[in-house]
Design goal:
2 copies of one chain form a homodimer.
Chain A lengths: L3 E5 L1 H8 L5 E6 L1 H6 L6 E4 L2 H7 L8 E6 L13 E5 L5 H13 L4 E5 L8 H6 L9 E4 L1 H7 L5 E10 L9 E5 L8 H4 L4 E4 L11 H16 L1
Parallel strand pairs in A: 2-3, 5-6, 5-9, 6-7, 8-9, 8-10
Antiparallel strand pairs in A: 1-4, 2-4
Helix pairs in contact in A: 4-8
Amino acid sequence: MYGKFLVEGDKSVRELLHSTFKIDAIYGLSEWIAAHKAGNCEVHTATQAELTELSTHDHPDQVVAVAEIPPLISDALSASQLYIACDRLNDPGNAGTIIRIADWFGIAAVIFSENSVDAFNPKVVSATKGSLFRVKVMTADLEVLFKDNAALPVLGAYMEGENIYKAKLPDHGILLIGNEANGIGAELSNFITQKVSIPSFGGAESLNAGVATGIIVSEWRRQLS
Amino acid sequence: MYGKFLVEGDKSVRELLHSTFKIDAIYGLSEWIAAHKAGNCEVHTATQAELTELSTHDHPDQVVAVAEIPPLISDALSASQLYIACDRLNDPGNAGTIIRIADWFGIAAVIFSENSVDAFNPKVVSATKGSLFRVKVMTADLEVLFKDNAALPVLGAYMEGENIYKAKLPDHGILLIGNEANGIGAELSNFITQKVSIPSFGGAESLNAGVATGIIVSEWRRQLS
């Protein structure tokens, strides 16, 4: 399935149908097919057993679709928008959560480093709850991206960064999120223009990458609103 | 294993050893056992195959322990602290994430409704990344809890609540988080003293329950700091 990805379940497939993504085929239970307009793609009626064959889930929900991965070209970034970049993000749940956060907070694009989890992995697709079809997702060599957009501020989350509640955050730029276990790689840390941190009031060593992203992006939006 | 719970993997078991939790038994690879002081409990050397039998993971990490669930009595709540309550929270990952957030932000206790996921489910334990051993976790009938603590403000997250960036949040009280799909139940909504919402700047219908909790608790701490 080179260049294609799987979209699973009623809710995600309905979001897909409302998106600009190109759909190759839909496989659904006859009731589902009868109740939905599939547009310009192959439509197949499937049994629950056939869906289970196609799906990555043990108990697939009514329908799966095969859609085309859009071109993931890293365009020049705008000097008036907010972006999220992810350095070697591993966990599909975190990737999906971050795409969903980006959708909620109107982030212009989420840019994954080439060695991050595949954003079109079925677990990521599912965790985005449909946000994948609305958020611009790109894959890029982040060193090249930062060099090509050298005028943009780059925020990095660090334990010893400036307190985000007191720091003055820029009105545009890129928030760089590091790998779950190892943080931001040394070669990328040179591009950081502002190190920030979420103040801690207790004993936890760290926050989950998705939660930390949500908190920083929310504070960013709060300062700009 | 009534009244007991399983703690899996090197990092979690090391956090357990540093906690006040009572440990019944530790089962570890001989190298792990040789390298760690287990204190006052049964210690068993196990092979990787034996660990796989005991563990809920296919590839367990060096050690598992059996510990005792502490008494989950819902004490009277303090009028000077922050609390999180969860109404029918279903997902173990969300429950673990919320306990980790509580640890980071110095929340006095996380109180789960009786029909929420079991906080000592191995997936919750793992998702807390050790925070379960530092945060006070209780299970309670939330209606009774709110009646017994009627003087405390109760924040509830709603789509149509006050913008958290502009709302004046109280200097103590309880943040109530609803079920992932259905939000806060009707019978509990009567106890809410302030409805709040995270402003949306994009197309997502909702945020993940853990992320939403992190953002609201962070804003709460910001206003108080």
